[in-house]
Amino acid sequence: MTRAPADANRSHSLCFFVGTLVLAGALAPLDISASAPTSFRPAVTYSTGGLDTVFPNTGGPVWVLAADVNGDSQLDLLVANWCGRVTACTSSTVGVLINNGQGTFRPVVTYETGGVHALSVAVADMNGDGIPDLIVANGCGDSGLQPGGVCSDGSAGLLLGNGDGTFRKARVFPSGGSMSALVVADLNHDGHPDVVVSNCAPNGQFCPTGNGNVGVLLGNGDGSLQPVTLYDSGGLAAVFVAVLDVNGDHAPDILVSNQRTCDNCRGTLGVLLARGDGTFQAVHTYDTGLFAPALIATADLNGDQQADVVLTQNTGGGGELAVLLNRGDGTFQAAAVYETGGLYATPLVVVDANRDGKPDLVVSHSQFCTGRSPGLSCIGVLLGNGDGSFQPAATYESGGTGAWSLTAADFNGDGNVDIAVAHQCRPSTCQGATAIVGILDGNGDGSFQSPLIYNTAAPSVLAVAADVNGDGKPDLLIGSAPPVPTGTISVLLNDSTPDDTVPPIITVAPTPKLLWPPNGAMVPVTISGSITDAESGVDAHSLTFSVRDEYGEFQPAGAITLGADGTFSFVVSLRAARQGSDRDGRRYTVVVRARDNAGNQGSSSAVVTVPHDRRD
User: Three-class SS string for 526-542?
Assistant: First the structure.
């Protein structure tokens, strides 16, 4: 249910966030009881080579990234370390852990980022040599914190790759303020990656009260960036930035979240429409209905092919989120605010939790979940109605306390979205050196099972899903931030065995089956049939057809749309002609292929014939 924004007298602290988007297509119902539970091997822990690799008391941006940086088709691990040394936080590093090929990793190698308070890392080819490079967001510049605790100008640290998993010394490009988020995108369609940042305050100002801005650093294509161009963000303390086309002109626009416009005022969404040449119009702002909005997540929430916006509050805030629907012309409708079912509900994923083809919202709550023990964490699930509105939140305990991050994937291969939640503490205590990750298997109807608990090496503050051993199953990367001696990543390899090993059942029937007379005319042939899967359901995005013409002249192919009842029908045009010497006639073979949500591939075929004579 929507509700009015919270009390304006509440106070909030600045923090930084990232979200995950996992949208599934419309899927057929399945037998929930047939799903095997998710299973992971015990965690293997690796040093990140740095200290406090997360913002204190926040969910933090994605400071752990899985990407192949040495060209061996294995996902390596990249870590933005907030502090590079235990003794003093005067510089930051990026840690690189090269994959050995089976989901194990070499010891971390660290590289200076050229600044302080590294908060995220991105991968892109910045100089056009086909080799991955690293772009690190440094919250503060190379001079660190100035007297009085004021952060110097932030910077983008650019480390060019050598192609073997090693990197050159960082080149530093000032961001125009104290950086809070960084995105890489091609803004001016020149084929060179550009950098967009949000700065929570200009250089020399404190973040919580400073005027926010957006910085644009255009890429030169040679591994360098042009000097930053700054734009007003439309509020104070700009903390998150996203880049996407919101008005349909094929030019990437910029979205930025501002935590407030004045003391004890609600925050805003700033929209900067692109001119198409890498420059932007003045910001237009929208009231979010939230105090201290942070994360920006985007998805088509109402089926109109436009990117809509969801914002959540910072971790120090309450349990609300805001939905702003896109009108398609670069403007947005007024925000609708929803309760999320608990407090401290910043992490967010957009998924199809009940397999109806409509986006749903899932958040994790640190504490105070509706109808549950106040000290325990939970997830809140808001099922989408398909028109951009959402049902009241349902909560499910996530297995620990101090939930800090979540990620979504189909961990057990049953076609349903599952959720993994990283917790700082066990349910009973926050004392000790270990914590837990809770896995909630999805039932496919929008509900979730009781959590499966796995130990991690230290208080867990980040969860990332990635297939690091190449077996086709999502594994878990859990980032932890112990005080000393170093940050860690716990790698949990997926050991789940899907119950479903049977491919979809496909029927194919052409009408007509015979093309007569052989006068060379193009004849429309209707191909109809059904595709069903009683276990994990049909992957609606995998349906294709192809036609094999034994003469090699007419071989159409394309995608198939499956109806809600599991049937399909489409038309192909085939030539009614054959060679006079072809005694058995010309044969067109129509093949329909589909996968189920467990990855099993199925196919079926039917033949359309141009006979030699009418008696065939």
Answer: EEEEEEECCCCCECCCC
